[in-house]
Amino acid sequence: MIRYVISRLATAVVMVLLATLVIFLIANTVPGDPAMAALGDMQASDPVQVREFRARWGLDLPLWEQYWLFLKRLAQGDLGISISSRRPVLADIIDYAPATLELATIAFLLSLAVGLPLGVVAAVKRDSWVDHLARFVALIGVSAPTFWLAFIMLAIFYGQLDWAPGPGRLDPIAFPPDRITGLLLIDTALAGDWETFRDAAAHLVLPSIVLAASTLGLITRTTRAAMLEALNQDYVRVARAKGLLARVVVTGHAVPNAMLPVVTLGGLAYANLLTGAVMTETVFGWPGLGRYTFRSAVTVDFPAIMAITAIVAAIFVLVNLLVDLSYALLDPRVARA
Amino acid sequence: MSGVAVPVAVPHPRPAALRWLRRYGLAALGGAIILAWVLAAALAPWILSYGPNTVDVANRLKPPSAMHWLGTDALGRDVLARVVYGARISLAVGMAVVLVGGLFGTLLGAVAAYARGWAEEALMRVTDLVFCFPPIILAMAIAAALGIGTVNTVIAMLVVWWPKFARLARSLVLTQRSLEYVEAAQSVGFGPAHILVRQIIPNAVGPLIVLVTLDLGQAILVFAGLSFLGLGVVPPTAEWGAMVAEGRELVQQWWVATFPGLAILSVVMGFNFVGDGIRDWLDPHARTR
Asked: Exposed, middle or buried: residue A76 (CB in 10 Å: 0-12, 13-18, 19+)?
């Protein structure tokens, strides 16, 4: 088991490095020029200024030297300086990550809390109204564009009904708590500032529902399919024949066996939520990693793009590893193999 | 898979038509939606009274009315006309991405599975690598770097699109090549290229068709997303994602952003219905999914 984990971790490191190399090559072979993007039109037309800018950011070195520099700094935990914000990329990321982490985690918990029971009940009571509801929810979740769903929710619950607060993490007039973790719910709770806590929670409702929608759809659909399959197995028939309560058959026999595909999907879904919140963050004015990534991509901010790629690839590889390890816990046969 | 069919309570016999409707009704509905969009997109100039870029500032931001069925946007352009013209781009991009990406990925995966050895190993590691990136981030980086434009966005999407086809094709071919008919073809003296293209791929094509259909919807969704972020089409091109972006501040004039979004939703749902229908038709056991 330990050897398995170590070899998987080693592969993970290689994958992350390869990922950064790929993005580095893509970023360098395409026509976009960070010097032109960062300097204004006036400065960009002056060859001396352009040359100085390139020298300052190491853009005039040969490609392999640029990549080597990136690796050397990465090994020291230095992600470089963002060209557009002129601050260390790590500091930028530490600023933006908590907003995304908070939103993605709540969205993930929401989609599990609704999707799992809905999928299980839909499979047990097949073709009932619950089943139809589950399939409808799954369909809307996977078919509706996130950015549009975000607009509709804001238009209805903020614009028309005024039940929910508008974009942003807090009311513009609210005092943000002292930054401890950057997660507003935790920071306000630690400060005992329940007024702001309520405000932060209210601001989270709409964006987390929107962000959860597609994950919720996938989890419902996968749970339902896995449960239908499990309920059709011989061991369930045996359990029923033994006269076990229907509830016991479902929760004790079918559900544990149906969880493998759901865990795989859930892990990937969480990684996607952490990295793919761009649309939701854009519509809800959420100062998170998605927006930061988008801005870095548009301004061809090499150091920021490289750092984000490394982090994103690391998240995905780690989540995959955790998923595989949890297989071993859920299914003893995997651990023995 | 359960081995034997156990006699359960026999369901009430239903009339054949009702049974067909229950099984393929949604697929037919999906097909009708797609067909309607294709026709509307093809006939757009003849069935609409306004062009997609006819500016009429005097009538800006008018709610839906008899004149403008879906209202007008901030420049007084007819939302209905823009939605219908938008279908041209979305459908074309969806087709281009899925067909080119699908063909490329399928060939690569099939060849890898058939060749085995280091070629297969190298290929699958490359697909793993692309899988490491969330597609939208990679596409975003490429689209931003190449510059904004429909063709560049399609290129960016293609880069991230082919691996899932490579994986599926590889696993399908691996399953097929161990079957007896392949051995038979080999013993008759057919070469590997012939066996792969004429024998294995036709036998394995079912799940690929399902993936293509479901993926058409996904590609349209991703393209609309990139457009929404400003990385898809160049204004003033009528495109659904870009239209939602233009209307997203207009909470009071809800029609500007709502209708293009509904258009995306309907097309994606249509492809989902058709894809699920084809899967049921190819494999009745998969109905449980």
From this structure: exposed
Residues in A touching B274 (Cβ below 8 Å) = none
| Contact (CB<8Å) B228/A305 | no
Beta bridge mates, A88: A81
Q: What is the DSSP letter of B12?
A: P
Helices (runs of H) and strands (runs of E) counted in chain B: 10, 0
B156-192: burial string, b at 16+ Cβ within 10 Å, e else: bbbbbbbbbbbbbbbebbbebbeeeebeebeeeeeee
Nearest to A32 among B129, B144, B260 (CB): B144
Contact B140 A279 (CB under 8 A): no
Alpha-carbon distance values, B153 to A28, A186, A272, B282 (Å):
18, 40, 21, 33
Tokens of A235: 């061991």
| Residue of B137, B143, B217 with shortest CB distance to A275 | B137
Q: What is the ipTM of this complex?
A: 0.81
Nearest-angstrom CA–CA distance, A59 and A38: 13
Identify all chain A residues contacting B254, using CB atoms and an 8 Å cutoff: 155, 159
C-alpha dist (Å) from residue B137 to A70, A290, A313, B156, B224: 20, 9, 11, 10, 14
Distance of alpha carbon A158 from alpha carbon A232, whole angstroms: 46
The answer to whether B129 contacts chain A (CB < 8 Å) is yes
Per-residue pLDDT tens over the stretch B55-106: 888 888 888 888 888 888 888 888 888 999 999 999 999 999 999 999 999 8
Answer whether A228 touches B (CB < 8 Å).
Answer: yes
Angle at alpha carbon of residue A271, lines to A112 and A92, rounded to 5°:
125
Q: At residue A129, what are phi and psi to the nearest 5 degrees?
A: -65, -30
